[in-house]
Specification:
Blueprint lengths: L6 E9 L5 E9 L2 E9 L1 H5 L2 E2 L2 E2 L1 H11 L1 H7 L1
Antiparallel strand pairs: 1-2, 2-3, 4-5
Helix pairs in contact: 2-3
Length: about 80
């Protein structure tokens, strides 16, 4: 029987030198690790800025729902 290895997700939000938000999705499963970067505009990110806290899980849901590139790689 094959052992199932749980996939671990991590999200990182940063900005480049032009002020563009970069949303990185890093995942690992067993010995395999991968990451994908998505450029987001300030309007997209501002919806998830609440009292100085960024809810990255919510932002990840937004990326998952609205970016075809994300869908192609993760669904």
């Amino acid at each position: 029987m094959q052992e199932l290895v749980k996939k671990h997700w991590e999200y990182i939000l940063s900005r480049d030198n032009k002020g563009v938000y970069i949303f990185s999705v890093v995942y690992s499963q067993g010995h395999f690790t991968g990451s994908f970067d998505f450029k987001l505009n300030r309007i997209e990110v501002s919806e998830y800025l609440k009292k100085g806290t960024i809810y990255l899980d919510d932002l990840a849901d937004h990326v998952r729902d609205h970016m075809d590139d994300f869908k192609d790689r993760f669904i």
